[in-house]
Amino acid sequence: MEILAQLVVSGIALGMIYGLIAFGYQLTFATSGTLNFGQGEALMLGALVGLTLVGHMSYWLMIPLVIVFGALQGIFVERVGVLPALKTKSEFGWIMTTISLAIIFKNVAENIWGHDDITFPSPLPTAPLQFFGIRVLPMEILVVVGALAIILAVELFNRKSIYGKAVVATSSDRDAAGLMGINTGMVITFSYALSSMTAAFAGVLIAPLTLTGATMGVVLGLKAFSVAIIGGLNSGMGVIVGGLILGIAETTTGYYISTGYKDVPGLLLLLLVLSIKPAGMFGKSVIKKV
Amino acid sequence: MSATNKIAIVLAIAVAASLPSIWSNPYYVHLMVMIGIYSILLLGLDIVVGYVGEVSLGHAALFGIGSYTVGVLNFQLGVPFLLAIPVSIVVTAVFGAILALPALRVNGPYLAMVTLAFGTIIQILINEMTFLTNGPLGLSIRKPVFFGHQITGADYYYIVLAALVLTLFVVQRILKSHLGRAFEALHDSPVASDCMGVNVYGYKVYAFVLSAGIAGLAGGLFTYSEEYISPNTYSFELTILFLLAVIMGGRKTRVGPILGAIIVVMLPNVLSDIDLFRKISTGIAIFAVLYSVYAVAVGQRTLKQLALPMLVIIALAVSGYVMRSITDQRLTIFGVMILFVVYYLPNGIMGFLRGIILKVRPQWIHRHELALEQGDKQHIWSVPDHPVTARGYLLEARNIVMQFGGLKALNQVNLEVKKGSIHGLIGPNGSGKSTMMNVLTGIYKPTSGEIEFNGKFITGATPSSIAGEGIARTFQNVQLFGEMTAVENVLVGLHHTYRHSLLDVVFHTPRCRKEKLAARMRAASLLKFVGLADLANEEARNLPYGKQRLLEIARALALNPNLLLLDEPAAGLTAPDIKELIVMINKIRGHGITVILIEHHMDVVMSICDTVTVLDFGQKIAEGTPAMIQSDEKVIEAYLGGSVAKAA
After folding, report:
1. Which of B80, B198, B414, B505 could form a disulfide with B193 if both were Cys (CB 3.0 to 4.6 A apart)?
2. Which of A90, A219, A274 sits opposite B103 (nearest CB)?
């Protein structure tokens, strides 16, 4: 029982990271109906840039810089990959361009930081805290708090500020919002900046717990997508719950079956959710008007 | 197929067969074998990507399943080549079905990610199931032995060539049949396909399974070619390579995948040799500069449009001279190539060439098979698939409620349609008429209520099965298959008359030919009936709006319906055309087809309807003969507002 509780606690931190990346998918999908297939690479770049910066400054000072870098990277992806495809209304187009940008980012990262995984110095003590016999790393608590904080901040921004209203309006009807004088192109660019920013932030949060390297993003991005589908692409609550389910499923499978299989349950869950409720567990299914 | 085409094909095969005697170096032969194997896979992938229009990132995994099926069968059980290959096709097709059944419920980015997830699972499974696959160590097998003769690399080339020719032949036959037409139709307008009885989900799964089977064949051949397989081959990069090849070669062509295969097989060689890379990239840059100078001079493109791609190409060529080694940058170059192809060569090399030929010799390009049949009167009508058995009312909808969020678009509506009548459905804009149509044809599932049609309950059934029961429709906002010709549109409506199987298609059996001929005759006759006989070979999107509406009627009649729903057929028609339409609708009724008519032209409604139902704000406010409706106070109020009594 204690082992199970321990696995659940470890799964929560991991799950929050998945949820945070999935949240990034939601942001761009809401405004433009597109996703960045290189979301995992945005995370990886954030982590590696953070690693370089942390050599010159403290972890806490590095975070805002990484966030700025993430935003710029998101704008680049939107301008080069998504905008031209949106103009030609080619779904195939943006899927392929964001994938190819992801490949390029990974290759560039390999050439700059090398092929090997590097440890990221932890800003907090690495000695675990004990709660009722369950060990929790201080960094894991930071991950949960940080992820929830950024999701809350974005949600508050969307609900309370006038700029947030523009984002919400664009999400619900891009053409109508455009006709009301909202610069929807700008909103989409902004959503990409925000999305890559959360991914980069997720990168520096998770980095001290795992290893950093050019290939760290691929699997994370894919699993976060599973989370977005499982939770529903239009439900903020969904990604958190979906992330937790996946994180816990992984740590428990890793322990009880084999670490080699730890990626399987999440992907199977993805196929299962799709065959039962394609809109996701928390997603609203929208009736397509004809 | 014309004689010149046949000669060209025979020549191409002869050239391909003589290649090993020109390049006898085993390394070159091996490259040619790889091109053949990739071509087979890409021909299958094009069915999904080109025809159905979905992005699959799972084809490397399917290829891997084919490879490992052969590998495991041969390594663990010693199954011979001639048995292992067919088994690998079947096993991969089954895996394709397992993936497609849940995955194709979604589309676009979802499907891409789901297939990617599938690819990841398969790679993990191959790695972990060591008792079968030998895990990361991989499997070794030998090339087959036929009649005591050990097949060599050069012999194997001919086996692959034979498989490629066979695949080309089969894929061509399938795509030119009603199946290929169904694939194109569902890509063009999924809603219309479903309402024409072509089950979109079902045919997508069909296309995917076919494609998977072909990937299995390619995978099996690959195992025997390499004689060693390991899990790392079937990676994400391989999947992207396949997609690049399909778009680069040119979608929806048979030559495109082969061109694409040549490029992606040669690519790693180009990218490992810096000198070769320099030469080729310089060559491409020179060609591109010359082309853009020409394009700007002719005025076809502006300098601004061409500046960015030019810059990229030249930068690529220059980077070749700056870099010492290229292998580290391999993936970046690969990524830049995809970006370039997506933006500047979206129709691939074949599409690009076709565009050039279209300017110089337009008569060489045949986009569509020409239909030259002349229709006649006796072939217009056919017996419905399900005879009318209901007495009195053909259709009864009871207490239909359709709720969108808080809005009740239909609130407790009852509708009874008498057999053989023309039933008008009118009401102001937003009163729920079209919603009713969509509920009746299964596009919307009603929140509550039930629908009985011809003695059967069809509430909640899928649009394609409702179409199969004999309800055909047209759409308020025209839903034609725009890139197909008028006659092809009608042929999609006739899809249900094709009862022959995949094997009939491949072997072109007499049964298949007979059904094909009958359908074409019928289609020509239907076009003649709606007055579009001389526009049969015109693409639907080029027809004027009014004609498009008539084409939709012809397509709907092709279903042999018992009930025809016409959603504003007179919109966009001129006054004389409307008169013809009235004659046409009366003729349709004369052949025993019940009609529900939504229309805003009151003269049309009042002159031909037997009964009229009036909706307002989702509720039925009146029903009766046209004369009764015209004097109904509620109706007048709904249309003109205010109370009549007060105004008077």
Report:
1. B198
2. A274
* Nearest-angstrom CA–CA distance, B493 and B495: 5
The C-alpha angle with vertex A31 and arms to A25 and A37, in degrees rounded to 5, equals: 30
pLDDT tens profile B405-438: 888 899 999 999 999 999 999 998 888 998 999 9
Question: Is pLDDT above 80 for B365?
Answer: no
Residue among B95, B86, B30 nearest B62 (CA): B95
Q: Which residue of B has its CA nearest to A228?
A: B110
- Tokens 């010359």, located at residue: B290
Q: What gap in Å lies between CA B518 and CA B375, rounded to an integer?
A: 11
| Contact between residue B154 and residue B24 where contact means Cβ atoms under 8 Å apart | yes
State the complex-level ipTM: 0.85
Strands B228-229 and B393-404: unpaired
Report yes or no: A71 and A225 within 8 Å, Cβ to Cβ: no
pLDDT of residue B453: 93
CB atoms near residue B544 (< 10 Å): 10
Q: Report yes or no: A170 and A184 within 8 Å, Cβ to Cβ.
A: yes
**How far is A105 from A287, CA to CA, in rounded Å?**
38
For residues B358 and B492, the model is more confident at B492
**Is residue B349 within 8 Å of residue A117, measured between CB atoms?**
no
Note whether A103 contacts B: Cβ–Cβ < 8 A.
yes
User: Which A residues in the span 128-167 are in contact with B, Cβ-Cβ below 8 Å?
Assistant: none
* Residue B204, C-beta contacts closer than 8 angstroms, at least 6 positions apart: B52, B54, B100, B104, B186
Whether chain B has a CB inside 8 Å of the CB on A92: the answer is: yes
Instruction: Indicate the helix (H) or strand (E) that contains B394.
Output: strand B393-404
CB contacts, 8 Å: A91 with chain B: 55, 108-109
The Cα B475–Cα B485 span in angstroms is 18
Nearest residue of A to residue B242, measured between CA atoms: A96
Question: Hey, what domains does chain A have and what are their CATH numbers?
Answer: 2-276 (1.10.3470)
Percent of chain B with pLDDT over 70: 98
Q: Is B209 exposed, middle or buried (0-12, 13-18, 19+ CB in 10 A)?
A: buried
How far is Cα B512 from Cα B55, in angstroms, rounded to an integer? 31
From A34, A97, A264, residue closest to B121, measured CB to CB:
A264
Angle at B53 between CA A272 and CA B205, to 5 degrees: 45
- The minimum CA-CA distance between B107 and chain A, rounded to whole Å, is 10
Subunit contact A268:B335, Cβ cutoff 8 A? no
Q: Residue A173 — φ and ψ, nearest 5°?
A: -160, 100
Token couple for A140: 């894991």
Question: Which range in A92-96, B99-103, B587-591 is most confidently predicted, on average pLDDT?
Answer: B587-591
DSSP state of B443: S
Question: Hey, is A151 helix, strand or coil?
Answer: helix
| Residue B583 token pair | 């004659």
Q: What is the distance between the alpha carbons of residues B92 and B99, in angstroms, rounded to a whole number?
A: 10
The minimal CB distance from A104 to the residues B112, B336, B479 is found for: B336
CA–CA distances in Å: residue B336 to residues A86, A98, B112, B344, B556 = 19, 11, 20, 12, 47
Distance between A290 CA and the closest CA of chain B, angstroms = 8
Nearest beta carbon to residue A274 from set B105, B343, B479: B105
Asked if B103's CB is within 8 angstroms of A104's CB, the reply is no
Tokens of B221: 């051949």
Q: What's the mean pLDDT in B250-256?
A: 90
pLDDT attached to residue B567: 92
Q: CA-CA distance, B360 to A282, in Å (whole number)?
A: 56
Give the DSSP H or E segment for B46: helix B26-46
Nearest CA-CA partner of B234 in B125, B336, B345, B157: B125
Spell A232-250 as b/e; 16+ CB within 10 A means b: bbbbbebbbbbbbbbbbbb
DSSP 8-state code for residue B323 = -
DSSP code for A128? P
Chain B closest-CA separation from residue A219 CA (Å): 9
